[in-house]
Amino acid sequence: MIPAADWTLCALADRLATGEVSAVEVTRAYLDRIEALDAAVGAYLTVDAAGALAQAETADRHRGEGPLAGVPIALKDIFLTRGLRTTCASRILEDFVPPYDGTVVRRLREAGAVILGKLNMDEFAMGSSTENSAFRRTGNPWALDRTPGGSSGGSSAAVAARLCAGSLGTDTGGSIRQPAALCGIVGLKPTYGRVSRFGVVAFASSLDQVGPMGRTVRDVGRLLEVVAGHDPYDATSAAVPVPGGLGELPQGADLRGVRLGVPREYFPETGLQPAVERAVRAAIEQLRDLGAEIVDVSLPHTKYAVATYYLVAPAEASSNLARYDGVRYGLRVTADDLQGMYAETRGQGFGAEVKRRILLGTFALSAGYYDAYYRKAGQVRTLIRRDFDDVFERVDAIVTPTSPTTAFKLGERLDDPLQMYLADIFTLSCNLAGLPGLSVPCGFDEADLPIGLQLLGRPFDEAGLLRIGAAYEDATPWKARLPGDPPEVRR
Ligand code: GLN
């Protein structure tokens, strides 16, 4: 039965629909793998074996009802799940059990999905390596002493290690695409407004977006179709129709008539690992062979993206995280008076990186500095968005590396926050501009670590990105390569 776990989400969904396998069998197979292998990988914070098997039994009674009927998936621990602990990998929410499901969770359940559990992440999604989790380290299934990326590192590791058939992450500055690239899987950050954030713990509200992660482009398309679409509970969600057929894109399509821009700012002289540059340049040639027209373009304000993001995101985080006051949610540390209770609760409940962001953000928003920092960052953000508007007059999508390097060693960047922030240098602009972005595997470095290709598209053109991604995936051998299973470690 184990080979079932090797199936892709789409293949599994189809086999479940015909009754070739039962949801209970498939769910048990995944739960067995988690039991045997996750002590080594460290992807899960909570495994809901009983809940998953109950959902699988229901799915077997209603075979074929719903596009994900019986398909076992898992969620970054930032999505509120009714009755199932949701920690955001923070001590401050360690025992928080939500009273309701977020919209995307509800939609997954309605589509028949089986929810295996909740996945590790950087605390409050702040980080690029999953090392900021208050609870556990996650290893990269390709090399367990390396990062799976972050902040959705549990989501990428679980998919790569076949500990779930697909997962959801969130992406504020790269947290779906960067871990997808580092684990050799596919990750999609949809357009701002495409997917509801109701019932998703907020980090930076003008940037946060929910998105799917999977083994293949079609897997991600199938998940997107289920979770995307307008939601009256999220005022920022857009009433733009979601195209169908994203899980059934035609095989072996070509790219004739597609114009792809290659921005020179994403191939800097220094900082780009040579193997990454080689693989991405080879991928661009492959896209040309598939019929795409390749155009050199420029996004001149790219150099301001890191500075702009690290004002906007911490500023919004400092405001969003004010709600963890020891009164309304999670941890409360009692003290002699109210101020003391706030200070103790937040002092003990938040980790170092979260505190750093709150301090930075509070400073950037404070009277007298607001104009110099937050307002200025907003203005630069407009310039970054205009760069993309200009380029999208001439091209259909933009091609870049997803991450400047392959997976780095755990611990290597922990003492150097700035070095850690640079892991997202190629992914941040997409969030600042509100665009969709897709990361697709495009090769391996000399240490056999995966490399990701990033495609950025026009607002709401996820379908266009998925079509290009699928054509590339079909023409290349990468998706067939999987990491071996880690040794079984008993807990
Ligand atoms: N690594 C970036 C940060 O630390 C992005 C995180 C994210 O997208 N959630 O903020």
Describe this structure in words.
With 491 residues, the chain is of the alpha/beta class. The protein has a domain at 4-256 and 466-490: Amidase signature (AS) domain (Amidase signature (AS) enzymes, Alpha-Beta Complex), CATH 3.90.1300.10. It has 15 helices and eleven strands. The chain has helices at residues 9-18, 23-41, 49-61, 103-110, 153-160, 177-183, 217-227, 274-289, 305-320, 338-349, 352-365, 371-391, 417-421, 428-433, 462-475, and strands at 44-47, 72-76, 114-119, 166-171, 186-189, 209-214, 259-263, 293-297, 397-401, 437-444, 450-457. An eleven-stranded mixed sheet has the order 1-3-2-4-6-5-10-11-9-7-8, sandwiched between helices. The longest helix has 21 residues, at 371-391. The radius of gyration is 21 Å and the shape is globular. The two termini are 23 Å apart. The protein binds glutamine.
Oligomer: single chain
CATH level 4 superfamily of the domain at 4-256 and 466-490: Amidase signature (AS) domain
Q: Name the CATH architecture of the domain at 4-256 and 466-490.
A: Alpha-Beta Complex
Hey, roughly how much beta strand do the residues contain?
A: 5-15%
| Small molecules bound | glutamine
Distance between the termini: 23 Å
Secondary-structure content class: alpha/beta
CATH classification, class level of the domain at 4-256 and 466-490? Alpha Beta
Average pLDDT rating: 96
Overall form = globular
Show unreliable segments.
none
Count the beta strands.
11
